[in-house]
Design a protein that fits this description.
2 copies of one chain form a homodimer. By secondary structure, chain A is mainly alpha-helical. Helices cover 64% and strands 6% of the residues of chain A.
Chain lengths: 452, 452
């Protein structure tokens, strides 16, 4: 290794890509013992012909596994280059939820082609899964769950899970249902292993599993899985019939995606479908420009406020010195309490009913913060201004921090109540609001207390 | 089957608390079929005597399970009220990582008492786990993993997992090691079920499992589990000996905690140990005041900038009208690109080496945004100012949005390079920086272009 390389060592995917790029290398050897996710990342970086040769060195189950990890663009590129037979084998072996994701990302012609290579039962399953609207539990669940009948004995159930092991997303939690597919309970493989040979499934299953409706928000599923540490969350329809499962790794992805979505929304950026590096510039521009322009017109109120107090400002130019400090502090305090509230609502630590308690606590903290800040700014301003101006500044600071904090606390609750995403409140929106109130409070107090 | 509805008006925990509060109710009946997490939430809300009576209605395994879900405060309160024998039974049955968490939260006297009720081997295990510093993989791993020898046959391995099922965190992935406890591979229960009776563990195990070092950052473990969809991530020491596992639900908690921590840090709030409602007001105050005061002194530069341009401002008071719009827009654009960068770095979508590519793309987007904003502000200002001032404003807006965006992009990379958390960049810090540059750019251009 050359000495100039101080950056991190090559990632597993880079190692695989390098091994595959050897002119006389054996792809089978290069891929042996490698993780599907790393192989997928390596294939994305390779020319189509090389990627195809590598993919063909794997057996069908692993091909499907790797294919599921590919990004949409690479799926389309490699999918188009495969023979019809290969495509059918891979799509047939993919897990049902990943297949449905792929289907949703295709155009109509691609969707037809995908349906064309599937057997009839699979085709209907795919159509059903893909029909769930984006953001619902149905859109992220999978239908290849393990299933047991209630009257099976433990050895029968174990044998049934053995048979289902190849085609199921997981066999560690099986759903149990009656003849009408109404969910009766769930059985963990662990409890099955601990049961005696005579025990029947209905006697050892958990009869009160937590479930979620397919038409619920996908965030609900993630929150439930996180709260109860579930490996598998059964999904039911309005009649209590089982329709799928959401697994813990799905919930993991949702939490990460929602955290990103919330963070972006909080910074007034629209949601992005792909990684920031893969997103076309025009989409990035569009995700950002809307709020920015809206906030320009919003901050016109601040400007108008300033203009209204032109007389006061002209008479006391030293007031200007403190303007960025005051409105900045209000915005910062507001952003702090908005973010605390948004995260607490997102994780379920705080519920809408807690608003009153949160408010009382926020007033106490914000008064403390405001007084501290007033003191800090008075010190900072000693050399810049006389006592009357400093009094106005300190008084304004206390009020601006208090009002900013209360705005930051209240806005997320209001947005949630209106059915909007509270995360929208946490960044530039609350900052802009605090700017306007800051200008009005500051120059309002100055006009009242200072001679013009 | 009763459905556990999480969104319903009365939460499951509230239902349990209400059932337990019935004067002549049977706690056993009130708790039957309930989730441990819900029981824990209910117990937290009850008086100690009632909570104790309810806890005593459960068997030891479930007691330990519920106890693990309790918040620290309730653990301390109920733990102190239990008999020594009960305490020993519960602590003995708790999963090893939760027991270590409990131990870490106790004072020295409490720690002594906890060690006192454990058998010697357990005591040493607990000391070892609790010794890992906060934030490391070691501090979140658990040592109650399932273990197999490489030369076991499939039926022997299945029998071994049966024996370990009660005391292990999970039996769905078992570690395989040699006589020196050096990790040789992992075996999933699924592969074990699919193996023939003659197969030996070493022949069917995964010989190239992803592992993590115990002294690595806990976020690394979460990222690895998320990338490879692992149920269990084996943890090894510097010599490759197995020391524990991190499970998917641990990773889930970490992602949620880190998202909260990043969001708070981005809003210049210090990390909190507990829910915002459970955090003492003094701690909340302290978590917020530091950055606020620091930023006051930071924005003194903006104030000083304004003061330096007093002459220009006095000659063209209409410039003031646009000040909040301009510095607000720069801050907003900066917050947008900072947040995009922070999230992309946090999820691993973008690596430090991508800075150049990100920069080129950001310039393109930011120039587009800046021109759009210049146009918007020129329209907004038509009635307020004459052509020379509008020219200054439009020019400043383009530059301010561009510089703000580039600051927002660069700051997280710089912080990461310096070994600090990039999330610190995304909120008030970048906004304050943009304020200063905005003031200098705006009045600098005005002084250059407008007659004084």
């Amino acid at each position: 290794m050359s000495e100039t390389e101080v950056e991190a060592p090559a990632s597993p995917a880079e190692e695989i890509a390098a091994a595959l790029a050897q002119p006389d290398g054996d792809p089978r050897a290069a891929l042996a013992g490698r993780q599907a996710a790393d192989i997928a990342t390596a294939l994305e970086a390779l020319p189509t012909a090389d990627a195809l040769a590598a993919l063909r060195a794997l057996d069908t189950a692993r091909q499907a596994n790797v294919f599921g990890y590919l990004k949409r663009k690479a799926q389309a590129r490699l999918g188009a280059a495969l023979d019809r037979g290969e495509r059918a084998a891979i799509v047939g072996a993919m897990s049902h939820d990943e297949r449905a994701d792929l289907y949703r990302a295709l155009n109509e012609k691609g969707q037809e082609a995908l349906l064309g290579v599937l057997a009839r039962a699979e085709r209907e399953d795919l159509r059903r899964l893909a029909a769930w609207p984006e953001g619902t539990v149905g859109s992220i669940m999978t239908s290849d769950y393990a299933f047991l009948w209630p009257n099976m004995t433990a050895p029968e159930a174990l044998e049934a899970l053995r048979r289902q092991a190849v085609d199921s997303e997981t066999v560690y939690t099986a759903l149990v249902a009656d003849g009408d597919y109404r969910l009766l309970g769930v059985l963990s493989l662990r409890d099955l292993l601990l049961a005696g040979d005579k025990a029947r499934v209905e006697a050892i299953m958990d009869r009160d599993p937590v479930t979620v409706r397919a038409d619920a928000d996908r965030e609900d599923a993630a929150q439930i899985i996180g709260r109860y540490d579930l490996l598998v969350l059964p999904v039911v329809d309005a009649e209590g019939r089982m329709v799928g499962i959401v697994t813990q790794d799905d919930a993991f992805d949702i939490v990460e995606e929602e955290a990103t979505e919330d963070a972006l929304r909080g910074a007034s950026v629209g949601a992005l479908d792909a990684d920031v590096l893969d997103t076309p510039l025009a989409i990035l521009y569009r995700a950002r420009v809307g709020w920015l322009v809206l906030l320009v017109f919003g901050s016109m109120f601040s400007g108008a406020g300033l203009a209204a107090f032109e007389g006061t400002i002209a008479a006391h130019m030293s007031l200007l010195f403190f303007l960025p400090l005051l409105i900045g502090s209000g915005g910062n305090a507001g952003a702090q309490s908005a973010t605390l509230t948004v995260r607490a609502l997102a994780t379920g630590d705080v519920r809408p009913a807690d608003y009153g308690r949160m408010m009382v606590r926020e007033v106490a903290v914000a008064v403390g913060l405001g007084l501290t800040m007033a003191f800090a700014i008075a010190i900072a301003g000693l050399l810049r201004a006389d006592a009357p101006v400093l009094t106005v500044v300190a008084l304004s600071m206390t009020l601006i921090v208090l009002i900013g904090s209360l705005l930051g606390l209240t806005l997320p609750f209001l947005l949630q109540r209106a059915g909007l995403d509270p995360a929208t409140a946490s960044g530039p929106l609350v900052t802009s609001l605090c700017d306007v109130t800051g200008v009005l409070i500051y120059f309002g107090i100055a006009t009242l207390l200072l001679p013009v």
